[in-house]
Design a protein that fits this description.
single chain, about 575 residues, alpha+beta, D-Maltodextrin-Binding Protein, domain 2, about 20% strand, globular
């Protein structure tokens, strides 16, 4: 199933192109994660769920890392879609089983939808808002009926439902955190764990889906263990010491300076920077518009003038990054140049309710020459702040009532402090007092869910086919829903209407047009201060793996790797010498 695009794989394909269908099963792999966990329920806002728990669950359909616009049957063997898009029927594979051997049925699917929508994270209520009814037709046949205008994405959306065991969950409280390993149907089950320290998953040897064409050659490790670390600094040192096997590097500084250690020089650790075609989304400093001091667009733009990306990229990031200028960066959905005729047909009816720059200018964030001298930017910021009613008293920026302008930057990673501190110093020159508050992951999530922050560093991840999830990011209805993803607190009827244009898009061309229009409006409202992106993965691994020759363009493809016994033995022998 796809939106106006041809699937990569046709009927009768035997396996995905980026796998080795004969990859050996076996061996163990150790991975890492940051923070802690106190739950095996990843579907609710309470608690911190264990990393890797998603591999216990399966969906009706799934996209692949080399065809992100298409969904292929997983639990479902076939799909029937109404001509008017008012309903879809999924026919389930009769061989599909949960780990206890019980069959996956239409009742489980209906139960999953209702449970996730009624008791799960707020996201699900928005994502499935137009699913009017789900009904069991036969034990292996389930029908979803839709409300609202025709939506070509809805048949795919319900295909993404994680299917839960009704029998297992009916005797448990889904709304509460739990460390009881849940009943799943996926390639792995929980083997062992210690809350907050590690969790080990074991491969299900008789997994019912192992020989499906979309799964052949994937999930090859017998055991996968995630070890928890306090922060990235400790985690990187653990990797160098051989405490875990694979690392996706996110720090430009560490990539440039920390990988010249003995095992790397000896060839026992491999590193690779590999280009990808995955949308980068928007990583940014995000304002919380629930704070009155950020309500004025000129104020937000003024603060943006104090962030010196060009200096940061030169001095802190070793020139590895590109400034982000779109919420849909690195994709054909990103707005570029001025709006074309198709976009204007969407935007013109909203003229007067949108920033005028949407129609007249191509968006670019404030720039500097990278020297560290940003006087020109600060002068522009001062003019904007004065226009917004702020004034300097005793070297402090204050409002009409004399209240000083203060900003707390809420962080979860100490590694980001080196980026924020120079920003805070520039803000001080404007009379703004900035503070950096770094908290642990549990406290951070608690504050995030209750929108208790001034500014945060966050990423609005995007796919190549945006749709219903945009409501959760930007709509007024999600602005005050605890645990929702409208982190900025946007309440704008014009933006709501643009989101609905995306949801209702009938063709790929319509989707691109509507998304670019929304992108422009978000950008020119200065809801965030865009940061940066890189169009490649930075990978490091201990040389124990077999890796397919072909690489997927929209993912790392790690779950198609396998443990090579000969390579692992060489590593072991080398370590013992």
């Amino acid at each position: 199933m796809t939106l106006d695009a041809k699937p990569k794989y046709g009927p009768g394909f035997s396996h995905l192109d980026f796998v080795n269908p004969n990859a050996p099963k076996g061996g163990s792999v150790r991975l890492y994660t940051i923070g802690s966990f106190d739950s095996f329920n990843p579907f609710i806002i309470k608690g911190d769920s264990a990393t890797g728990i998603g591999n216990l669950f399966e969906t009706l359909m799934l996209s692949t890392p080399d065809d992100s616009l298409t969904e292929y049957g997983w639990i479902a063997k076939s799909v029937e879609v109404a001509e008017d898009l008012s309903w879809v029927i999924y026919n389930l594979r009769p061989e599909a089983r949960f780990h206890d051997g019980s069959p996956i049925t239409a009742e489980d699917v209906v139960f999953s939808l209702e449970t996730l929508r009624d008791k799960g994270q707020p996201f699900y209520r928005f994502y499935y808002a137009n699913v009017a009814k789900a009904e069991v037709l036969t034990p292996h046949r389930v029908k979803f009926t839709f409300s609202g205008p025709p939506n070509r994405e809805l048949p795919q959306i319900v295909g993404q439902i994680a299917v839960l065991s009704k029998k297992w969950w009916s005797s448990r409280d889904f709304s509460k955190t739990s460390l009881e390993p849940p009943m799943g149907s996926g390639p792995y089950r929980v083997k062992d764990f210690e809350p907050g320290r590690y969790v080990t998953y074991e491969r299900v040897s008789d997994w019912w889906a192992a020989d499906l064409p979309i799964m052949k050659g994937r999930f090859n490790f017998d055991e996968v263990r995630y070890d928890y670390y306090r922060d990235q600094v400790v985690a990187l040192e653990a990797f160098k010491a051989g405490r875990y096997d694979f690392r996706l590097e996110s720090s430009s500084k560490d990539w440039a300076t920390q990988y010249n250690f003995p095992a790397r020089r000896e060839g026992r650790v491999k590193i690779l920077e590999r280009a990808h075609s995955r949308p980068s989304g928007m990583q940014a400093f995000a304002f919380n518009l629930r704070r009155e001091k950020f309500a004025n667009r000129d104020v937000r733009l003024a603060i943006a003038h104090a962030f010196d990306f060009e200096w940061s990229n030169k001095r802190l990031f070793y020139g590895q990054y590109t400034r982000t200028t779109s919420y849909f960066e690195n994709s054909d959905l990103a707005s570029r140049d001025l709006p074309d005729a198709a976009e204007l047909r969407i935007l013109e009816p909203l003229r007067g309710r949108l920033p005028e720059e949407v129609f007249t200018k191509t968006y670019q964030p404030p720039k500097t020459d990278g020297s560290g001298n940003i006087r020109r930017n600060l002068r522009s910021a001062q003019r904007l702040l004065k226009k917004a009613g702020w004034r300097i008293v005793d070297n402090r920026l204050v409002d009409k009532a004399g209240k000083p302008f203060e900003i707390e930057f809420l962080l979860v990673s100490p590694a980001f402090e080196r980026v924020v501190i120079p920003f805070v110093q520039n803000l001080k020159r404007l009379g703004i007092e900035g503070r950096v508050r770094t908290v642990d992951s549990s406290q951070y999530q608690t504050r995030l869910r209750s929108f208790d922050y001034d500014m945060i560093v966050t990423t609005f991840g995007q796919s190549r086919s945006p749709g219903n999830e945009q409501r959760d990011f930007w709509s007024a209805a999600s602005a005050d829903r605890e645990g929702g993803r409208n982190l900025i607190g946007i309440r704008d009827p014009a933006i709501d209407s643009l989101v609905e244009k995306i949801v209702a898009a009938r063709t790929r061309t319509d989707l691109i047009t509507a998304t670019r229009a929304l992108d422009r409006v978000l950008l020119w409202n200065h809801f965030v201060i865009p940061q940066w992106h890189i169009r490649s993965y930075r990978l490091a691994w201990w040389d124990k793996f077999g890796i397919p020759d072909r690489k997927p363009p929209y993912g790392v493809g790690f779950w198609s790797w396998w443990v090579d016994p000969a390579k692992e033995k060489r590593l072991t022998d080398g370590a013992s010498r």
